[in-house]
Predict the 3D structure of the following.
Amino acid sequence: MIVHQLNKTNSILNKFIAEIRDEIIQKDSMRFRRNIERMGEILAYELSKELSYKQKVVTTPLGKKSVPLINEKIVLCSILRAGLPLHQGILNYFDKAENAYISAYRHHPNNDSEFEIVVEYFASPSLEDKTLILIDPMLATGNSLVAVNDALKKHGTPKEIHIVCVIGATEGIEFIKNRFPKNTHLWIAAIDDTLNDKGYIIPGLGDAGDLAFGKKL
Ligand code: URA
Protein backbone atom coordinates (compact mmCIF):
# COMPACT_ATOMS: atom_id res chain seq x y z
CA MET A 1 0.00 0.00 0.00
CA ILE A 2 1.25 3.46 -0.87
CA VAL A 3 0.42 5.92 1.93
CA HIS A 4 0.08 9.65 1.18
CA GLN A 5 -0.20 11.61 4.44
CA LEU A 6 -1.08 15.11 3.34
CA ASN A 7 -0.43 17.05 6.56
CA LYS A 8 3.27 16.21 6.29
CA THR A 9 3.38 19.23 3.99
CA ASN A 10 2.08 22.54 5.35
CA SER A 11 -0.99 23.72 3.46
CA ILE A 12 -4.46 25.21 3.96
CA LEU A 13 -5.58 21.63 4.65
CA ASN A 14 -4.12 22.00 8.18
CA LYS A 15 -6.72 24.67 8.99
CA PHE A 16 -9.55 22.33 8.04
CA ILE A 17 -8.03 19.49 10.08
CA ALA A 18 -7.72 21.82 13.09
CA GLU A 19 -11.34 22.98 12.74
CA ILE A 20 -12.88 19.50 12.49
CA ARG A 21 -10.94 18.46 15.62
CA ASP A 22 -11.83 21.58 17.64
CA GLU A 23 -14.64 20.77 20.12
CA ILE A 24 -15.99 24.34 20.00
CA ILE A 25 -16.02 24.71 16.20
CA GLN A 26 -17.46 21.18 15.91
CA LYS A 27 -20.70 22.42 17.49
CA ASP A 28 -21.52 24.04 14.13
CA SER A 29 -22.47 20.89 12.24
CA MET A 30 -22.85 22.72 8.94
CA ARG A 31 -19.26 23.96 9.22
CA PHE A 32 -18.12 20.45 10.19
CA ARG A 33 -19.74 18.94 7.08
CA ARG A 34 -18.45 21.70 4.85
CA ASN A 35 -14.89 21.37 6.19
CA ILE A 36 -14.94 17.63 5.51
CA GLU A 37 -16.30 18.34 2.04
CA ARG A 38 -13.48 20.85 1.42
CA MET A 39 -10.98 18.24 2.58
CA GLY A 40 -12.54 15.81 0.11
CA GLU A 41 -11.87 18.31 -2.67
CA ILE A 42 -8.21 18.66 -1.66
CA LEU A 43 -7.75 14.89 -1.31
CA ALA A 44 -9.40 14.41 -4.73
CA TYR A 45 -7.04 16.93 -6.30
CA GLU A 46 -3.97 15.18 -4.85
CA LEU A 47 -5.30 11.76 -5.87
CA SER A 48 -5.93 12.98 -9.41
CA LYS A 49 -2.15 13.29 -9.90
CA GLU A 50 -1.85 9.47 -9.71
CA LEU A 51 -4.52 8.67 -12.35
CA SER A 52 -3.85 7.93 -16.00
CA TYR A 53 -4.40 10.61 -18.62
CA LYS A 54 -4.99 10.69 -22.37
CA GLN A 55 -4.54 13.61 -24.76
CA LYS A 56 -7.83 15.02 -26.09
CA VAL A 57 -8.34 17.87 -28.51
CA VAL A 58 -10.48 20.76 -27.23
CA THR A 59 -11.88 23.27 -29.68
CA THR A 60 -11.91 26.88 -28.46
CA PRO A 61 -13.65 29.72 -30.36
CA LEU A 62 -10.18 30.55 -31.79
CA GLY A 63 -8.52 27.18 -32.43
CA LYS A 64 -7.72 23.73 -31.14
CA LYS A 65 -5.63 22.60 -28.20
CA SER A 66 -4.58 19.11 -27.13
CA VAL A 67 -4.96 18.62 -23.36
CA PRO A 68 -4.33 15.62 -21.07
CA LEU A 69 -7.59 14.45 -19.44
CA ILE A 70 -8.30 11.66 -16.96
CA ASN A 71 -8.74 8.38 -18.80
CA GLU A 72 -10.27 6.18 -16.09
CA LYS A 73 -13.73 5.00 -15.16
CA ILE A 74 -14.09 6.12 -11.56
CA VAL A 75 -16.46 4.70 -8.94
CA LEU A 76 -16.77 6.46 -5.58
CA CYS A 77 -17.89 4.18 -2.76
CA SER A 78 -18.84 5.57 0.63
CA ILE A 79 -19.58 3.96 3.91
CA LEU A 80 -22.84 5.36 5.29
CA ARG A 81 -23.45 7.67 6.94
CA ALA A 82 -20.26 9.43 8.04
CA GLY A 83 -18.75 9.17 4.55
CA LEU A 84 -21.33 11.42 2.87
CA PRO A 85 -19.69 14.88 3.23
CA LEU A 86 -16.28 13.49 2.16
CA HIS A 87 -17.99 11.70 -0.75
CA GLN A 88 -19.60 14.98 -1.86
CA GLY A 89 -16.24 16.78 -1.80
CA ILE A 90 -14.63 14.12 -4.00
CA LEU A 91 -17.65 14.07 -6.33
CA ASN A 92 -17.35 17.86 -6.72
CA TYR A 93 -14.12 17.18 -8.64
CA PHE A 94 -14.77 13.78 -10.23
CA ASP A 95 -18.18 14.94 -11.38
CA LYS A 96 -18.77 12.09 -13.86
CA ALA A 97 -17.90 9.32 -11.40
CA GLU A 98 -20.32 6.51 -10.72
CA ASN A 99 -21.34 6.06 -7.10
CA ALA A 100 -21.75 3.19 -4.67
CA TYR A 101 -23.09 3.30 -1.12
CA ILE A 102 -22.75 0.69 1.54
CA SER A 103 -23.82 0.60 5.16
CA ALA A 104 -21.38 -0.84 7.66
CA TYR A 105 -21.84 -0.42 11.37
CA ARG A 106 -20.30 -1.70 14.58
CA HIS A 107 -22.51 -4.26 16.31
CA HIS A 108 -21.70 -4.90 19.98
CA PRO A 109 -23.33 -8.33 20.60
CA ASN A 110 -22.46 -8.41 24.32
CA ASN A 111 -22.86 -4.67 24.97
CA ASP A 112 -19.17 -4.42 25.77
CA SER A 113 -16.24 -3.00 23.83
CA GLU A 114 -16.06 -5.99 21.45
CA PHE A 115 -17.76 -5.47 18.13
CA GLU A 116 -18.24 -6.99 14.71
CA ILE A 117 -18.83 -5.09 11.46
CA VAL A 118 -22.25 -5.65 9.94
CA VAL A 119 -22.69 -4.80 6.25
CA GLU A 120 -26.33 -4.30 5.27
CA TYR A 121 -27.42 -1.87 2.54
CA PHE A 122 -25.29 -2.11 -0.57
CA ALA A 123 -25.87 -0.34 -3.92
CA SER A 124 -23.04 -0.40 -6.44
CA PRO A 125 -22.41 -0.40 -10.19
CA SER A 126 -19.99 -2.93 -11.71
CA LEU A 127 -16.43 -2.32 -10.49
CA GLU A 128 -14.76 -4.48 -13.12
CA ASP A 129 -11.60 -2.80 -14.41
CA LYS A 130 -12.60 0.55 -12.90
CA THR A 131 -10.81 2.85 -10.46
CA LEU A 132 -12.44 2.39 -7.08
CA ILE A 133 -12.23 5.28 -4.61
CA LEU A 134 -13.18 3.92 -1.19
CA ILE A 135 -14.26 6.69 1.17
CA ASP A 136 -14.23 6.43 4.95
CA PRO A 137 -13.49 9.60 6.97
CA MET A 138 -12.20 7.82 10.09
CA LEU A 139 -9.83 4.89 9.60
CA ALA A 140 -9.85 3.52 13.15
CA THR A 141 -9.48 -0.27 13.44
CA GLY A 142 -9.70 -0.76 9.65
CA ASN A 143 -12.31 -3.51 10.13
CA SER A 144 -15.08 -1.71 8.27
CA LEU A 145 -12.88 -0.91 5.28
CA VAL A 146 -11.87 -4.56 4.98
CA ALA A 147 -15.49 -5.77 5.44
CA VAL A 148 -16.70 -3.31 2.81
CA ASN A 149 -13.99 -4.29 0.35
CA ASP A 150 -14.91 -7.97 0.81
CA ALA A 151 -18.58 -7.16 0.15
CA LEU A 152 -17.64 -5.19 -2.98
CA LYS A 153 -15.75 -8.14 -4.51
CA LYS A 154 -18.94 -9.65 -5.94
CA HIS A 155 -19.31 -6.53 -8.13
CA GLY A 156 -16.03 -7.13 -10.00
CA THR A 157 -12.31 -6.54 -9.66
CA PRO A 158 -11.25 -2.90 -9.82
CA LYS A 159 -8.15 -1.93 -11.78
CA GLU A 160 -6.90 0.06 -8.81
CA ILE A 161 -8.17 1.09 -5.38
CA HIS A 162 -7.67 4.48 -3.74
CA ILE A 163 -8.75 4.76 -0.10
CA VAL A 164 -9.56 8.29 1.06
CA CYS A 165 -9.72 9.18 4.76
CA VAL A 166 -9.61 12.27 6.89
CA ILE A 167 -8.01 10.93 10.10
CA GLY A 168 -6.54 7.48 10.67
CA ALA A 169 -4.94 5.52 13.49
CA THR A 170 -1.54 3.90 12.96
CA GLU A 171 -2.97 0.55 14.13
CA GLY A 172 -5.80 0.64 11.57
CA ILE A 173 -3.42 1.53 8.76
CA GLU A 174 -1.18 -1.40 9.68
CA PHE A 175 -4.26 -3.67 9.76
CA ILE A 176 -5.45 -2.79 6.24
CA LYS A 177 -1.99 -2.70 4.63
CA ASN A 178 -1.82 -6.40 3.80
CA ARG A 179 -5.54 -6.82 3.18
CA PHE A 180 -5.68 -4.73 0.00
CA PRO A 181 -3.75 -5.22 -3.25
CA LYS A 182 -0.16 -3.90 -3.12
CA ASN A 183 -0.86 -1.10 -5.64
CA THR A 184 -3.61 0.40 -3.41
CA HIS A 185 -3.12 4.05 -2.48
CA LEU A 186 -4.19 5.51 0.86
CA TRP A 187 -4.86 9.27 0.82
CA ILE A 188 -5.14 10.56 4.35
CA ALA A 189 -5.05 14.04 5.85
CA ALA A 190 -3.66 13.15 9.32
CA ILE A 191 -2.59 10.09 11.32
CA ASP A 192 -2.94 9.73 15.14
CA ASP A 193 -1.14 7.15 17.26
CA THR A 194 -3.80 5.72 19.53
CA LEU A 195 -7.17 3.93 19.60
CA ASN A 196 -9.20 3.73 22.79
CA ASP A 197 -10.92 0.52 24.00
CA LYS A 198 -14.07 1.50 22.08
CA GLY A 199 -12.13 1.76 18.83
CA TYR A 200 -12.16 5.56 18.68
CA ILE A 201 -9.13 7.45 17.42
CA ILE A 202 -7.30 9.44 20.13
CA PRO A 203 -7.22 12.42 19.97
CA GLY A 204 -9.09 12.11 16.63
CA LEU A 205 -12.23 14.21 16.62
CA GLY A 206 -15.00 12.12 18.21
CA ASP A 207 -17.79 10.50 16.22
CA ALA A 208 -17.73 11.88 12.67
CA GLY A 209 -21.26 10.63 11.84
CA ASP A 210 -22.79 12.23 14.94
CA LEU A 211 -20.92 15.50 14.38
CA ALA A 212 -22.09 15.71 10.78
CA PHE A 213 -25.66 14.48 11.18
CA GLY A 214 -26.57 14.40 14.88
CA LYS A 215 -26.56 11.67 17.52
CA LYS A 216 -28.34 8.43 16.77
CA LEU A 217 -30.16 6.14 19.21
N1 URA B 1 -15.44 6.56 13.76
C1 URA B 1 -15.49 7.83 14.20
O1 URA B 1 -16.40 8.57 13.87
N2 URA B 1 -14.51 8.26 15.03
C2 URA B 1 -13.50 7.48 15.42
O2 URA B 1 -12.64 7.94 16.16
C3 URA B 1 -13.47 6.16 14.95
C4 URA B 1 -14.45 5.71 14.12
Notes: Residues 29-48 form the longest helix (20 residues). The longest strand covers residues 98-107. The chain has a mean pLDDT of 95. The chain is about 30% helix and 35% strand.
